[in-house]
Amino acid sequence: RLLERMKEQTPASDTVVQKRKRKKDQENGEDGLRQKYFSRNVVMVVVVCMVAIVLNIWGYRRIIDSVRDTHDRFHILGISPEYGIHRSIAEMVKSQVKYVYVNQEDEFADEIAAKGEPVIIKNTSVVHWRAFSQWSTSATGYLSRSIEGRELKKVKRYTNSTFRYWHADHPLSSVPSILSSYSRETYKTEVMKTSDFFAEISKNPADRDGFIYFADQVHELGDNIANDLYPVDFFMFKGGNYSKEQAYKHRVTHIWMGPARASTHTHYDIGHNFYTQLRGRKRFLLFPPAASALLYLYPFLHPGAQQSQVDFENPDLTKFPLFAEIEKLNPVVSVLEEGDVLYLPPFWFHHVTALSPSFSISVWPRYSGTAKAHQMFRSKLPFKSNWPKDKLILAGAQYLKNIIENT
Fold first, then answer.
1. For the segment 306-325, what is each residue's pLDDT rounded down to a tens digit?
2. What gap in Å lies between CA 367 and CA 306, rounded to an integer?
3. Which of 130-166 are b and which e, b meaning 16 or more Cβ less than 10 Å from the residue's Cβ?
4. Alpha-carbon distances of 281 from 42, 46, 47, 131, 202, rounded to whole Å
5. Count of alpha carbons within 13 Å of 129, Cβ hemisphere only?
6. Number of Cβ atoms within 10 Å of the Cβ of 111
């Protein structure tokens, strides 16, 4: 009876069974806590290791980039005898053109043009053009069949990889002394079937006989081609005295087609250029307007106007010593991929090289400065080259005065 009474008075928590259960629960709790801390520590160790790995890779890449900086820059520039730029010029380039992403619904031309600096524009509505999805270098493809008459009437053929402009309509193009002193790569203009043209620009450089290049206004190729480049209104902006509607109505749209390694010599444009890369890749080497004195430009009314006299394949620093200082003006490079749009402000110099068979479109909105420049180009010289020197000076001064006052 006493034992039963003692058993009744012992708390339930003190029973052997419950003690064992409590001890087990305690042990399980400690194990769970231990496991929790262990898991947390493992996660922290993994995170720390990943951060360390990333930092090490970043540091390694920085070392590699610093070691290979020159090599990579040459690779981007396509430096080789076939690509028309001397190695010393590539060493001057330290940075690339910036790029921006835009919303396809937004009007961005005003904001970009106002900054006055080159920029690569991505994510534009260009990707919705029929030209972007349908054009190719196939000799029997859509583009070859769609060009009016299936022929190209202004194909330029030349032996040198670098094409230089000759403006036969400029006032000084008829002056004998200029004709004899202006050294230019001669080329001939010919008519080619579209199938032959596309077949030739698709060949390997070693299999081609010289270089061919086509440049013309888009409307010259027929309505089918012009309609493939729609819309272009997002390139329009209020330029000078023209509204956006006038800029659109009087815009100039150019097409450029050529093979890999074909270059256009260093020059500037007067208008705002929205340069669109449709097929292939192109490299632009850019210099600011302040580089004009260092690039030794031909006179404005000269048939080689707007171009540098410096040969970028073999620069002659004895003849053009200031060119060696052009690195101080921070030239930049850009490589355009398909669908990219490069905005080129007026008077920015560019040397252009196709890194593969290439189709490009330039859209120049109507701009008051462009109209004035064209008016100057069309003006006739009010004197003859065989006049006495003093008479030529007076006539030339009056001629320039009239240009300045009237434009």
1. 899 898 888 999 999 999 99
2. 18
3. ebbeebbbebeebbbebbeeeebeebbebebbbbbee
4. 48, 42, 41, 16, 14
5. 28
6. 12
Using a 10 angstrom Cβ sphere, with 0-12 exposed, 13-18 middle and 19 or more buried, the burial of residue 390 is exposed
For residue 93, CA distances in Å to 64, 69, 115, 118 come to 19, 11, 22, 15
H or E, element range at 22 = helix 16-77
Q: Do 260 and 340 contact (CB within 8 A), yes or no?
A: no
Distance in angstroms (rounded) separating the CA atoms of residues 327 and 283: 18
Degrees to nearest 5, angle at CA 240 with 235 and 244: 35
Check residue 397 and give left, alpha or beta (phi > 0: left; psi -120 to 50: alpha).
alpha
Q: What is the pTM of this model?
A: 0.74
Closest by CA position to 285, among listed 188, 353, 209: 353
Q: CB neighbours of 39 closer than 8 A, spacing ≥ 6? A: none
Sequence-separated (6 or more) residues with CB below 8 Å from residue 140: 195
Report the C-alpha gap between 343 and 115 in whole angstroms.
Answer: 11
Q: What are phi and psi of 335, to 5 degrees?
A: -115, 115
The residues, ordered by sequence, that sit 6+ positions from 294 with a Cβ below 8 Å of its Cβ are 322, 323, 325, 326, 329
Name 167's Cβ contacts closer than 8 Å, sequence gap at least 6. Answer: 173, 303, 304, 305, 377
Size of the chain in residues: 407
Distance CA 151, CA 196 (A): 9
Q: Residue 220 half-sphere exposure, CB side, CA atoms within 13 Å?
A: 14
Give residue-wise pLDDT tens across range 222-254: 989 999 998 888 888 766 566 666 666 668 899
Rounded CA-CA distance 359/280 in Å is: 7
Q: Report d(CA 129, CA 5) in Å as an integer.
A: 99
Residue corresponding to tokens 């004899």: 180
